Amino acid sequence: MTDLADLSIAEAGRRLRSGEVSAADLLEAVRRRATMSEAQLHAFLTLDTEAAAEAAEAADEALARGEDHGPLHGIPVALKDNMVTRGVETTASSRILAGYRPPYDATVVERLRAAGAILVGKTNLDEFAMGSSTENSAYGPTRNPWDPERVPGGSSGGSAASVSVGSSFAALGSDTGGSIRQPAALCGIVGMKPTYGLVSRYGLIAFASSLDQIGPLTRTVEDSVTVFEAIAGHDPADATSYRGDVPDVRAALEGGVEGLRIGVVQEFSGEGYEADVEEDFRRVVGLLEGAGAEIVEISLPSVEYALSAYYLIAPAECSANLARFDGVRYGLREEGASVEQMMAATRRDGFGPEVTRRILLGTYSLSAGYYDAFYGQAQKVRTLVARDFAAAYERVDALVSPTSPTTAFPLGAKTADPLAMYLSDVCTLPSNLAGDPAISVPTALDRSGLPIGFQVLAPTLGEPVMFRVARAVEALAGFDARPGLATSEGAA
Amino acid sequence: MSWEAVIGIETHIELLTDSKMFCGCRADAGAEPNTNVCPVCLGLPGALPVPNERAIEWTVTLGLALDCDIAPRSLFHRKNYFYADMPKNYQISQYDVPLCADGHLDVETEAGGRRIGITRVHLEEDTGKSTHLGESGRIHGSEASLLDFNRAGIPLMEAVSEPDIRTPEEARAYAAELRSIVLSLGISDAKLEEGSMRFDANVSLRPEGDDAFGTKVEVKNMNSLRSLQRALAYEIERQTRVLDDGGTIHQETRHWDEETGRTEPGRSKEESSDYRYFPEPDLVPVEIGEDVVERLRDGLPELPAARRKRFLALGVDEDGARQLAEDDLLTGVFDGAVAEGAEPRAASNWLTGEVIAWMRREGRAPEALTGAHLAELVAMIETGDVSSTAAKDVLGGVLDGEGSPRTVAEARDLMQISDDDALVEVVDAVLAANADERERLAGGDTKLVGFFVGQVMRETGGKADPKRAGELVRERA
Amino acid sequence: MPVDIDIAKVARLARIGLDAEELERYGAQLGDILEHAGRVQALDTDGVPPTAHPLPMVNALRSDEVEPSLERDEVLAQAPEREGPYFRVPAFLEDEA
Fold first, then answer.
1. Is residue A448 among the annotated active site residues?
2. Can you tell me the ipTM of this complex?
């Protein structure tokens, strides 16, 4: 019999409503899984056990009264620790925020609560979401449930590892250059980045404001839809929040791919791509074609420059976004004879090397005399990338690519070489520059038994077709493996 | 050599909106410390700004009053620098596309009229306030500082003049005129001593007749029109001395010290600032349509310069015209009174005298006073219904909301005794009660008229017409 | 494109107190990254407008209405150092910009 912790949200919801299980049972199941896996994985920074137990109890009572808050009612959900939670420590994995208890909740936190979700804890990430391996956490790395010697990807590595192993049913992550999709791919789950502006950023500790977007990590595409529906929608507290209606993503979910034109991005292959990744990608494209999709070769010439543009824009925005961490109002303070020295000492000790590197990079590229050559030029490249995508979507309904050139790599393999680490996001970051939605779906294991992700990209507000293609990929690929850490309990 | 001063003025003006620029906190810097604060204006992690629409419209309104062009599409930028009372360590401001640009302001000095160009008017957010602990209470030599963020995020306009100003007098006239305009628009309380309106001046000298600019010095910390004028006079003299001695001027910021009457160098970073402006990614552009511009233009009140001209033509003196023109409400009362037939100079004298004194004393606007009231009061004095002494009491009652002048005069029993018979009775009684003085008066000692009028006024509780009482005393002594 | 970086100035602007060894290390890393990122300069972007934002939105404004502020004690509870109703910091060396 399947352990409760391995169910999809959809299935857990059916059992909850049939009275077969309670919210307290679901919470107990993910807790057991956490107890078993956390020592090895370190997916969580904070487990909010008491509040979660109370919330589960309240969810059961509500349901008993006939009060049903929807498909997330009673479902244990984890939050990446860069989303603020009132009174619950929120650090963004940085030493500079050690012990910080925010006085307010992020909008997504309020929305999850309103949808009846049980918030189980705060997951580990690369400090301030800067990284692709979750090794840049001031509180130690998270490990991959499929192989604890390897990274879970990042920066939402804690969220991905938790959903993968079953210590939560779903988690929220944030995606600035691939930080939801890449760890989802490396952990064998579904990770989705919505159209920029569809999910409120209010209460998300900013990395790069014009690129950041919150999205769900789940085990199935349908669950991704469920969480997306709960968190999307206009928020007057976020001036960049989209004011129109959230597209209907459920109606066409099972529509299949027959008659759809799907573009294969030429630039996302070749040097740096592992053979198993490329081979499985071709296999799934074949399955889509077999299911009636028309496959079209698409070239996005400017994506060659997307990585460079990204590494100018994101650090520039982060250099300003992280200026507020200064030891004055909250968080870490190191001693200094003057307020200026106090700030410099606090920021030196409070930020890890990757964060320091990006702040310096961004400060430089915005400074007098360099703005036009670096930041200004990068913003123009951003226009070109968006134009390439727009031109492609004149010809096709959706684009597909591998999510990441590689499967999970060993801890420490890329930490000494920032540029090699940055290449991990080469397939994912163009959608952030364009503001478009994209999703990663697990399709197979490579020869080492590590999951491979398949990415579906769609135009702005194209979530309906993106989810539809993703659901077809999920059904066609038939990936149903579970990581060793999750199944070892089943055996026990 | 003969030097010409080149002066440009940057004016920061706090807006009187209810809420702050980017959040819903009350825009009240004077509240209990750190009570008007929230995640946004404290720069807490995750918080996001949303601009205050009224602050944008008011900035455009000032721009229109200064004949500026209004940008159809305007952007907010981040201005990056570290300062402990600025919560995000960047200020949301405007950079290359401000809301308003390219306007002008006409000023009058004894030397004549000048048109001063306005480079731009833009919108930004204010910082918090720091109190420096230690002996001097100043920034240098203090041990620690205390921070209050109530002011952080209050909407702040910055109006930048072209370097068109040539003398300290002109600078003062420019600042005074800008302040009058802001007050007449009702968008700021523009209190210089409290810092809700602040001036920074850039000053340089060049040989008379040259077109090129000299090295400029920024002068800060002038919190009255008088200190602005004094500081500039001092700074021009200082630079003249340096240049005459063959020295060079360094680009720097200097602070005006009111007590010593000098400008002193500030203690800033050794390298020049690099604010790393870039478009604020948490905000989207502001577009101001023609319809909005027209609506705001239609809503502009008559501006102070035009008002003053009109008041002077009505016979109001210069001081009175200036004081009235600065205040929308007083202007309204004045215009109403004149429309009701009041003599303009008399109406103006009451407003700039008693009414303004009452406003200062009470610290509030004279909302109960209407033009009709003032006209009635002036008429009552003319017809002798109230004495000018009693009229002050009557006005006090009107300002306190007790009703029209006639109502107040009757309720307070201040109507002048216009009935000669009644007055004759009092005069006779007073003459009878002071027989010695009456003898002397009858004997030609006219100085005693005053004594008897005084007695009559006392007996009538001030309601007698002193002039008529004097006549009666003479007649009947 | 080789990049010449005054890393000490950059660190001062970013207000991060790095020592000489750290400055040198970060300076070298920044040089490498910028050499790669500087490839964007090879692209001809004449006449291409910059994209500051992925969504073509304007006028996301709020009306001038007062909303509740935070409780002062909750705010000051997070302060590294407080004094009465204030945040307390060491003395300022520099004047405001």
1. no
2. 0.96
Residue type, A462: G
Cβ contact, residue pair C30, A379, below 8 Å = no
> How far, CA to CA in Å, does B3 sit from each of B112, B125, B256?
20, 38, 22
C-beta atoms of C62 and A210 within 8 A: no
Residue A187: left if φ>0, alpha if ψ -120 to 50, beta else—which one? alpha
Minimal C-alpha gap between C91 and chain A (Å): 5
Instruction: Tell me the nearest-neighbour CA distance from A436 into chain B, angstroms.
Output: 17
Measured between beta carbons, which residues in chain C are less than 8 angstroms from residue B33?
84-86
Q: Which one is catalytic: A179, A319, A365, A431?
A: A179
How many CA atoms lie within 13 Å of B422's alpha carbon, on the beta-carbon side?
Answer: 10
Q: Is B336 helix (H, G, I), strand (E, B) or coil?
A: helix
What three-state secondary structure class fits A55? helix
Please answer whether residues A9 and A78 qualify as being in contact, where contact means their C-beta atoms are separated by less than 8 angstroms: no
Q: Can you point out the beta strands (E) in B135-208? A: 144-148, 155-161, 197-207
Report how far residue B317's alpha carbon sits from residue B320's, in angstroms, rounded to the nearest whole number. 5
The phi, psi pair for B202, rounded to 5°, reads -100, 125
Tell me how far apart the alpha carbons of residues B200 and B232 are, in angstroms, rounded to a whole number: 10
Query: For residue A179, which amino acid is it?
Result: S
pLDDT tens across A363-420, in order? 999 998 889 889 999 999 999 999 999 999 999 999 999 999 999 999 999 988 888 8
Question: Element (H or E) spanning A39, and its range?
Answer: helix A23-41
Q: What is the pTM for the complete model shown?
A: 0.90
Task: Please tell me the total number of residues recorded for chain A in this structure.
Answer: 492
* DSSP category for residue B302: P
Contact indicator for C97, B10 with CB cutoff of 8 Å: no
Establish whether the linkage from the previous residue to A155 is cis, with ω within 30° of 0: yes
Residues of B in contact with C12 (CB under 8 A): 271
